[in-house]
Design brief:
The protein is mainly α. 44% of the residues lie in helices and 10% in strands. The strands form two sheets. A three-stranded antiparallel beta sheet has the order 4-1-5. A hairpin with a 2-residue loop joins strand 2 and strand 3.
Length: 174
């Protein structure tokens, strides 16, 4: 089993005896041992293909709307591997190949930080130094909304921890 399932629902699920965050993938090889005996008995087969296993999952309601199955043939890389080249940027921050570079907010002035929306706060990266930025924000409701968004997103535990700490500090101050 070389294929995988991608969670394209925008929500996190607890399924296949694990947390399945949005935009993440689970290899079928990791799921197969959980259901191997049941599938073989119910299908009355000694060997089950990937497609049959995914159909079995779908019939049991384990393939939610928005889950996408990528077959093992598609999962393998085909074609040649090209060397990545560093991007060159013009004065506006636009690279020669059209990619936009989002500058770091580390060391940004207070007026820029005050204009951040809750969704901007939820999209902070580690290079933005979120702890320093959050320490400058005093709008508790904006921070709470950002924390709600961050809790539903995958791979944002670092930011959620700092949001929680800043909200508790603001609670103590008020």
């Amino acid at each position: 089993m070389e294929g995988y399932i991608v969670n394209g629902t925008g929500m996190s699920f607890h399924i296949f005896k694990r947390k399945f965050p949005s935009r993440h993938k689970i290899l079928l090889a990791d799921i197969w041992p959980l259901y191997e005996v049941k599938v073989k008995v119910e299908l009355a087969k000694k060997s089950v293909s990937e497609a049959e296993f995914v159909d079995w999952l779908d019939k049991r309601g384990l393939m939610k709307n928005g889950f996408e199955y990528v077959a093992g043939e598609k999962a393998s890389m085909e074609g040649k591997v090209e060397q990545a080249s560093p991007a060159t940027y013009d004065a506006q921050g636009i690279s020669a190949d059209g990619r936009l570079e989002r500058p770091s907010l580390d060391g940004a002035p207070q007026r820029v930080i005050d204009k951040l929306t809750y969704s901007d706060i939820a999209e902070l990266r580690v290079v933005d130094n979120p702890k320093a930025i959050l320490d400058k924000i005093n709008n508790k409701s904006k921070l709470m909304r950002a924390r709600t968004v961050v809790r539903q997103a995958g791979r944002k535990a670092f930011l959620e921890k700092h949001l929680k700490q800043r909200i508790m500090v603001l609670d103590r101050l008020s």
